[in-house]
Specification:
The structure is a homodimer. Chain A is of the alpha/beta class. Chain A has helices spanning about 1-10, 10-20, 25-40, 45-55, 70-85, 100-110, 125-135, 155-170, 190-205, 220-235, 250-260, 275-280, 295-310; strands at about 60, 90-95, 115-120, 140, 150-155, 175-180, 210-215, 240-245, 270-275, 285-290, 315-320, 325. Chain A contains 13 helices and twelve strands. Chain A has a six-stranded parallel sheet, sandwiched between helices. Chain A has a six-stranded mixed sheet with strand order 7-6-8-9-10-12. In chain A, α1 (about 1-10) crosses α2 (about 10-20). The longest helix of chain A has 17 residues, at about 295-310. Chain A binds a DNA duplex through α2 and α4.
DNA sequence: CTGAAAGCGCTTACAG
DNA sequence: CTGAAAGCGCTTACAG
C-alpha cells in the first residue's frame, strides 16, 4: 500500500479510500491509484485490515465431525455455505471440534472469527450457552428446544414427516414404522432432528389411527442390514416405512431383500432428509424427501452475517421443508 | 495484553515472553503473569500476532468442490487434515473454489494464508504453476505428471492396482475389466488417479497375458446401473472387475444383479481407493482396497507445514498404498 | 531477566 | 477532496 501510494503520488490514506470506496476521491486521483495498483499487482493485506477494523471477515462452521457421520447432505450444505460466505465477502472455516463448550471458547476468544455457525445442534446444547455468555455472534443450523432469542435455520422435520405419512396414506398404507439414527453416544439431551421426527411420528400416527412402531439403528449400512433381519422377523405387519438415516438405508433395504421382503411390493419405503445421491445407492432407488441442504447453507450464512452486521435487527428464524422426490420404493399397498 | 501487563506489574513485552515462551522469564514473574492471565481470562489475539509475525498460521485446503463429487474418502481426508493442523498450531480453511489458477491468486495474495494444500490435482495443473510463480508454499494431495521440485502426498495407485490384480489372479481369474470415473468435464490434461490406474491396469494385464477391458462411468449410482446393463450384454467373458468409482459402485452392483449376474459367483469385484462406508452400501458388501485417507490428511498437513517452516529442507514426497479388506464380492473363479 | 520503542499493514477520526 | 497521525494487538531487536 505504501508502494502504491508512492507510485500514484498520494498518501496511503487515499489509497485506502479508493480500495474501500470509503470516501469521495477525485476521478483523476482514483484513476492514478487504480493504475498504480494494477502496475504493482497490489492486493490489500487482510491481516492489517482485520486488525485495524477489529473484524476478520471469517466465520467458523462448527461441525462435530467426531460424533456423527459426515453425510452427503452435510457436505452439500457445507459447500453451499462456503460459496455464500465468499459471495458476501467472508471466509468460511470448517473447524472440526467436539461438542465441548470449552473448545468453542478456545476458538472465539482468540479473535480469529467474527461469528460462528453451529451444526448438529442438540436440544439442549452447551455450546449455545457458552456462545451466549461470551457474546459471540452465532446462528444455528438446527435448533435448540427453546428458540427464544436464537438465530437459526432448520429443516422443518415436523411438516416433512407429516408429508411423508400423508403420501403413504394416500397409497393406502395404515401400518407404519419409523427408523432413525438415534441420539449417538452419551448425549442425554437429544439430537433435534431425531427427537422432532419421533414426536411428530408418534402424534400423527396416533391422531389418524395408524399403527406406528419406532426403531433405531446406527448410522451405517451394516447396522441397517442387522436391523432389517430383526425387522423381517418381528414386524411383518408393517407396510410403510420412514427411514431417517441415510447411511443405514441401503443396508436396510438390502437386508429386507435377503429376508425375502420385496420393495415396494411388500413394504414401501420413504427416506427422509436425505440426498438423491445416497438414495440412489439403494436398490431399488429410494423415494425420498430431499433435505434442502443448499438452501440451508446459504440461509445459514446469511443468518450469521446478519447477526454480525446488524445485531439489533430481528433474529432470523427459518424452517424449510424437504421436497418429495419419486423413486422406486413406494407404491400402493397390496390387496 | 495491556491489562494483563498492568495486572501483573510487568511490561507487555514480558507478557509476550511468557505467552510464547520465547525468552527466559524469572519464575516469580512468570507466575504473576500467568495468574493475571487466568484472572482476566486472557487469550492472545491471533490477528495482532499474525500482523507482527507476518504469519497467520492458516492453511487453505483447496478442494474444487464444483467439479468432482465429495466422496466419503475426501471427507475423511479433510477431517484428519484439520485435526492435524490443529495439533500443530495451524488452522485449516476449506476453500471451495474452481480449478482456476486465477482464484488461487485471489486467495493467497491477500496474505490470509501461510500455505496451500491442493486436492484433486490434474496431471498438468495450472494451479501448481500459479503457486510456483507466486512463491506461495504449497503441497499436493495427488501429484502432477512431473513431480520434480514439488511436495506431495499421494495414493500409490500403481501398486494398489497391481495388488488388486494379484489378489484376483490368485483366485484364478484371467479376464479383467477396470471401471473408473473418467476425467470429468472438459479437463484435457487428465485426472491423475484415473490416468495412473489405467496405465497400470493396461501394463499389468498385458505383461501377464490377461485380458483387460477399460470402461468409464460418471460418479453416481444411476450411471453405474446403466453401465452394468451394457456390461452384462457386452462383456460376459469378464469374471474379475476393478472398480475405481465409489459412487457408481453400489449402482453398478445392483445393475449386475438385475441383469442376472451374481456376485461373487459369476463376477468378482474389488473396489479401489474407496472407504468401508461406501463399500458397505453395495449388496453384497464390496471387497476393497481402502484409501489411506486419514494418513493422507495427516501427512499432507505435515508436508505443507514443512514447506512453510523449513523451505530449504528436502521436499516431502510420499506414496501410500491402499490396504486390502475382505468383503463379500471376490471369490475363486468358477469351474 | 526486564522494559521502552519501533513496526507489522491497514483504517479512520481529525484537520486542512 | 487529500494528508498526517494515531491506533488496532501483538512481536522483537536493542539496551540495560
Amino acid at each position: 500500500m505504501h508502494d502504491v501510494a508512492q507510485h500514484a503520488n498520494v498518501s496511503i490514506a487515499t489509497v485506502s479510500f479508493v480500495v474501500n470506496d470509503s470516501k469521495p476521491v477525485a476521478p483523476a486521483t482514483r484513476e492514478r491509484v487504480e493504475q498504480a495498483m494494477r502496475d504493482l499487482g497490489y492486493r490489500r493485506n487482510s491481516v492489517g485490515r482485520a486488525l485495524a477494523r477489529g473484524k476478520t471477515f471469517i466465520i467458523a462452521l462448527l461441525y462435530p465431525a467426531l460424533q456423527h457421520h459426515f453425510s452427503t447432505t452435510a457436505v452439500r450444505f457445507f459447500t453451499s455455505a462456503a460459496a455464500q460466505a465468499r459471495e458476501r465477502g467472508y471466509n468460511l472455516v470448517l473447524w472440526p471440534i467436539s461438542n465441548e463448550a470449552e473448545q468453542v471458547t478456545e476458538l472465539t476468544a482468540t479473535g480469529l472469527v467474527d461469528g460462528v455457525l453451529l451444526m448438529e445442534v442438540q436440544l439442549d446444547d452447551s455450546r449455545v450457552d457458552e456462545l451466549e455468555r461470551r457474546k459471540t455472534p452465532f446462528a444455528l443450523i438446527g435448533r435448540t428446544r427453546d428458540t427464544e432469542g436464537i438465530a437459526f435455520v432448520d429443516v422443518d422435520f415436523e411438516s416433512t414427516v407429516e408429508a411423508a405419512i400423508d403420501h403413504l396414506m394416500e397409497l393406502g398404507h395404515t401400518r407404519f414404522a419409523l427408523i432413525d439414527g438415534g441420539y449417538g453416544s452419551g448425549n442425554l439431551s437429544g439430537y433435534g432432528p431425531v427427537a422432532r421426527a419421533r414426536g411428530t411420528f408418534g402424534e400423527v400416527t396416533a391422531q389418524r389411527g395408524l399403527s406406528g412402531v419406532m426403531l433405531t439403528c446406527d448410522e451405517n449400512s451394516e447396522a441397517g442390514r442387522e436391523l432389517a433381519a430383526e425387522f423381517a422377523l418381528e414386524h411383518r405387519e408393517v407396510t410403510a416405512l420412514l427411514v431417517m438415516n441415510e447411511h443405514a438405508a441401503p443396508g436396510f433395504v438390502a437386508g429386507l431383500r435377503r429376508a425375502g421382503i420385496r420393495i415396494p411390493d411388500d413394504v414401501s419405503v420413504i427416506s427422509i432428509g436425505s440426498s438423491t445421491d445416497m438414495a440412489a445407492m439403494a436398490d431399488p432407488q429410494l423415494t425420498l424427501m430431499i433435505s434442502p441442504a443448499v438452501e440451508l447453507g446459504r440461509m445459514g450464512v446469511d443468518a450469521i452475517i446478519e447477526r454480525i452486521e446488524n445485531p439489533q435487527h430481528p433474529l432470523p428464524q427459518t424452517l424449510l421443508a424437504c421436497t418429495f422426490t419419486q423413486g422406486g420404493s413406494a407404491s400402493r399397498v397390496r390387496g
